[in-house]
From TrEMBL, chain A:
This is Phospholipid/cholesterol/gamma-HCH transport system permease protein. The chain crosses the membrane at residues 41-65, 139-169, 189-212, 224-243. PANTHER family: ABC TRANSPORTER PERMEASE PROTEIN-RELATED, PROTEIN TRIGALACTOSYLDIACYLGLYCEROL 1, CHLOROPLASTIC. GO terms for molecular function: phospholipid transporter activity. Keywords: Membrane, Transmembrane, Transmembrane helix. The keyword Transmembrane helix applies. One of its GO terms (cellular component) is ATP-binding cassette (ABC) transporter complex. It holds the Pfam family MlaE. It comes from the Bacteria. It comes from Dysgonomonas alginatilytica.
From TrEMBL, chain B:
Signal peptide: none annotated. Keywords: ATP-binding, Nucleotide-binding, Transport. This is Phospholipid/cholesterol/gamma-HCH transport system ATP-binding protein. GO terms for molecular function: ATP binding; ATP hydrolysis activity.
């Protein structure tokens, strides 16, 4: 039963995406919507991304400095390890899990509310492809802006770590800096960006799917929103594993 | 004109509409009445293409809705206007933007002409001062009027209203009824209203269709409703004492004449 239910949902999701991923009815209106969505989903997430990245970056450095306290390991290992954690996993995967909560619930509840208040029906009656009009700008908007958020997260994560070194001397600043610059591969940045663009598609499309097919009233919209966050988080984790194996393995 | 022929709609083997046939005439206010669960909303959703009939046909001036391609369907939809029970105004847009939206999406008019048209639609429903407000900032009656303005912005040939008076006080209901009736006659629209409101039936019902358990039980004018012998219709329309008294007075008048 669970398998059949999941397959049904997968089919419904594929059919929805077929409606979403078509040419917009009017490019001018699409671009207006796109700029609104970039502002709402992306720009409005900058502050939370900066705050979380700064503090987690700082904590990562403290933890590593405390746990890699071995005279056989050079002190710059702390800077090197922190950079790798921030670049490879924290700023891409963990940040996207956080965005799945913030942005995913926003998308799902907005579209769900439009569904239960018949606003989507109103669009359909007018002859508007409601899925394309409502969902495509969100998907494209988030996929476009997520790399900016990832870069900001990387930068502020490292700034947070640097701040810890500077103020607490957990690791001498010079060693930390040396570690940050050691064995650096630009490919890791591209890997993180490619990964997050894929995650952005998952977050926005899954949240939109749950909102679009919401039924009932406000309680059901809340339920759809929760389901959207749970499912997209699980799929982010699974696809993180697959993408990492594909790109790094 | 919209012609419905032998319309059947089933859900998991259960027939909700059992072969309904009816004709909605142009320039007239056609009312669909019936108890809750009688199939009115399902009928309306089939008429506007939000549901696909199980059997039968729906002819919009000889174009069968059930056989249209998606391109033809899109073209037909632009000839339709719809007023939803809860108004269904777009929350994120102002009242003016709500009315402007269909024009912006489908009309080939210039920007200034579109603005002029949206403004005239708002004027028509006496909402010219509320254009800058959001749906959450206006009353239920104003929301209904804004929905009417949006529905007529593209000069529809067919207007559908799902319980346009629900949640409104009697006075505002009267205003909305008269507005819909006037617009129907003014623009020669085929208007179909799904309602429970007996005041609407008596005031603006040019043609009334009574649906009972998925069948068309009775059809006629609002004058004929007073003299009907149909028991189910009498039970439904004259359920309240007030309407029973109204009927008695009207019947007396008819008999005296």
């Amino acid at each position: 039963m669970l398998l059949i239910g999941s397959l049904e949902k997968l089919g419904q999701y594929a059919m929805l995406m077929r409606k979403v991923l078509t040419r917009p009815q009017k490019w001018r209106i699409f671009l207006q919507q796109l700029s609104k969505e970039i502002s709402k989903l992306g720009v409005d997430s900058i502050s939370i991304v900066i705050i979380i990245s700064f503090f987690i970056g700082a904590v990562i450095v403290i933890q590593i400095a405390l746990n890699i306290n071995n005279p056989l390991l050079p002190r710059y290992t702390v800077g090197y390890t922190s950079r790798e954690i921030i670049l490879l996993e924290f700023s891409s995967s963990i940040m996207c899990l956080i965005l799945a909560g913030k942005v995913g619930s926003n998308i799902s509840s907005e579209i769900g509310t439009m569904r239960v208040t018949e606003q989507i029906d109103a669009l359909e009656i007018m002859g508007v492809n409601s899925a394309n009009y409502l969902i495509l700008p969100k998907v494209v908007g988030l996929m476009t802006f997520v790399p900016v958020l990832v870069i900001l997260s990387m930068f502020f994560g490292i700034v947070g770590g640097f701040g810890v070194c500077y103020f607490t001397n957990a690791v001498p600043v010079a060693d930390f800096e040396f570690g940050l610059q050691s064995f650096f591969k630009t490919y890791y940045i591209w890997y993180a960006i490619v990964k997050t663009i894929f995650f952005a598609f998952l977050i926005s499309s899954i949240a939109a799917y749950y909102g679009y097919f919401a039924k009932g009233g406000s309680l059901d919209v809340g339920k759809a929103s929760t389901n959207a966050v749970v499912v997209s988080s699980i799929l982010i984790l699974i696809s993180d594993l697959l993408i990492t194996d594909l790109m790094m393995g | 004109m919209i012609e419905v022929k032998d319309l059947v709609k089933s859900f998991e083997g259960r027939e909700v509409l059992k072969g309904i046939s009816m004709i909605f005439e142009e320039g007239k206010t056609n009312l669909i009445i019936g108890r809750s669960g009688s199939g009115k909303t399902v009928l309306l959703k089939n008429l506007i293409g939000l549901m696909r009939p199980t059997k039968g046909s729906i002819l919009y001036d000889n174009r069968d809705l059930t056989k249209l391609s998606s391109y033809q369907m899109k073209a037909l939809r632009q000839e339709m206007g719809m007023i939803f029970q809860g108004s269904a105004l777009f929350d994120a847009m102002t009242v003016f933007e709500n009315v402007y939206f269909p024009l912006d999406m489908f009309s080939s008019l210039s920007k200034s002409e579109k603005i002029k048209r949206a403004t005239s639609c708002l004027d028509r429903v006496n909402l010219s001062d509320a254009g800058h407000l959001y749906p959450s900032e206006i009353s239920g009656g104003m929301m209904k009027r804004a929905a009417i303005a949006r529905a007529i912005s593209l000069n529809p040939k067919y207007l559908f209203c799902d319980e346009p008076n629900s949640g409104l006080d009697p006075q505002t209901s009267l205003v909305i009824d008269e507005l819909i009736s006037d617009i129907t006659k003014e623009y020669k629209i085929t208007t179909i209203i799904n309602t429970h409101d007996m005041n609407s039936v008596m005031n603006i019902g040019d043609k009334i269709f009574f649906i009972q358990e998925g069948n068309l039980e009775w059809e006629g004018t609002n004058k004929q409703i007073l003299t009907t012998k149909n028991e189910a219709l009498n039970d439904f329309v004259f359920a309240s004492d007030l309407f029973k008294k109204v009927k008695a007075i009207e019947m007396d008048e008819i008999n005296n004449k």
